[in-house]
Amino acid sequence: MDPELEPPQLQFRSAQMGGAFDDFHGLISPPQVTGGSSFTALLELAPPQAVELLVTEDFPAKQPPPPPIFPTDIGLIHRASKFSVFASADNSLESNAILSVSNSIPVKQEELDADSRRNSSSPAGSDQSLKSGKRKEREKKLKESNKKSKSKAANDDGEELPYVHVRARRGQATDSHSLAERARRDKINARMKLLQELVPGCNKVSCHNCLLSIIVSSMGSNCGDYLGLIFSGHSKRLAPLTKCICRCVVQISGTAMVLDEIINHVQALQRQVEFLSMRLAAVSPGIDFDLDSLFTVNGSSNDNSYSGMFAPPICTEGQLDGARQLQLQQLWHCDELHQSVWARETDTSNFIAPANSLLSYDSTSANSGKPVAPRCTTS
Amino acid sequence: MKARSSLKQEFLEKWRKGLQIGRNDSTILERKDAIKLSADVAIAATRNAATRWRRALLCDVVSKNPTNKHVVEQILGHKLKNTAATTRLTTACRRRILRRGQNYRRRKRNKRSRALRKLVPGGEEMDGVLLLQETLDYIVSLRAQVDVMRRLAAIT
């Protein structure tokens, strides 16, 4: 077997999802996609891929067509190798992951391939579209490769393997869990770097969450949702990623509004408390009278109590009234809840009046039959 | 709702307790502050004091004006044991959070939650999930408080 032919073949096998060559082709064909605007291009490319990805789950028995010879073979290999190096530190595993394919597609893992990739690679920036293609590939592959073993994969062209073989890197833990972990991490890192290159200003950002949130916010809510959809298709492998993306999406597009509402509500309630305490202070000097009566009164409706206990306005301290009026009006002006509050209270124009009336209210002890012990003396 | 009415009545009782502390306030503003203080402490003292915003509110109240302490204690029914500890913890947490808050991510994402933290007492030290929980509880208590105060104001 021609070793040079192997990588492209394997790559193509891994790329295609049982015959969806065109999309892959479409992915790798525009090599000039760079910069921040490319993200939309990526998104345009995403739909067919997303559909693919979501469909891949039930893709068991399709036979891969014989791999065609792509005109960009060598270039592809080169870019793939570059990308693999660029994307992760675990080169061999990365390339292994790249090479690993879905269940029904036989995978040939050869150290030779990995080595050739590694050797031929150079730490240069990889191509945008290639990265996206790689990303899709890896998404598909890693989603379906449930098991990994140490052994080399048999070179089966026509045979179907129920699972994927991945050769473990020397000196690394070959536990399936750690392998899966590493693969996931690599994938996440690769995607992070991809997105980092897309969004300007993200280069310095290291945390995944922040990066995702920035990206999602830059894209807007629709794209954010779409991203969430894309990533949610791979929930098995992408649990942490999906969670943070979903969190970001919800936070930025959905919960942002909710948070605004919450903030407004809390502000409104606090203002109401202020206002009401001011009002009660205006009423006050005998404010702490007996609330026992008010217990019973509170059970009844406001209107009844209000009208029942309302004494005719007696203006005893005009100067205090003026000050009170001024203060109350100041309060009112800065309170947006005035309308709602006053709508519920029966009478707004009589506000000063009851305030005045209560100066004598307490002394007359019209409150109730219970003896009032004025604990708060009028000044 | 049974729960809500008991919460309101509890709040009313504690509020009354706080107001019973004789205070000779001349200006309306002082009176207003006293009323508000009593109301806030009362609503914070209702139910279990396990929620953070309550503790933070009480500690803020006490730290701002040490004379309020007896009000708080009377309303609470017991002494505030951990006031100093809580304030120390508060400032330490705040500093730690501020240091971590230099993160670009927080600055970007938490603009709104910062606004919310300012509103909810003790919100500076809460993380996202806890902040929302506390906010929920705080809003419920605030609504009860406002309702009671409004009725009282309507009566008087």
From TrEMBL, chain A:
Comp. bias regions, Polar residues: 119-128
Family matches, as InterPro entries: bHLH_dom (IPR011598), bHLH_ZIP_TF (IPR024097), HLH_DNA-bd_sf (IPR036638)
Region Disordered: start-end pairs: 110-163
SUPFAM superfamilies registered for this protein in UniProt: HLH, helix-loop-helix DNA-binding domain
Domain of life: Eukaryota
Compartments, record wording: Nucleus
Keywords linked to the UniProt accession: Nucleus, Transcription, Transcription regulation
Molecular-function GO terms, alphabetical: DNA-binding transcription factor activity; protein dimerization activity
PROSITE patterns linked: BHLH
Gene3D superfamilies: Helix-loop-helix DNA-binding domain (4.10.280.10)
Protein name: BHLH domain-containing protein
Species the sequence originates in: Salvia splendens (Scarlet sage)
